[in-house]
Amino acid sequence: MQSENPLIADFVKLMNSAAGTVAGMGREARESAREHFKESMGGLDFVSREEFGAVKDMAAKAREENEALKARIDALEAKVFGHEGPPAKHD
Description:
2 helices, mainly alpha, 2 domains
């Protein structure tokens, strides 16, 4: 049973229009936020996954070389100073 009351019909039209407007505002706000985020992030320097992996590998290799050099120094100190290590420094 449909109402013939023009006041109710106008109210329904107004509500439909308001719902469309709110939905449009939501889409506009999302797009605006997305653009703002892109602009904000555009100024930052990011590295690619490949670049990060390469630097990570370089750091691991440097760590290994550092450990090998430390072992050589320890061996040389043991040879020169005996098992006691280098003499203590006095200030």
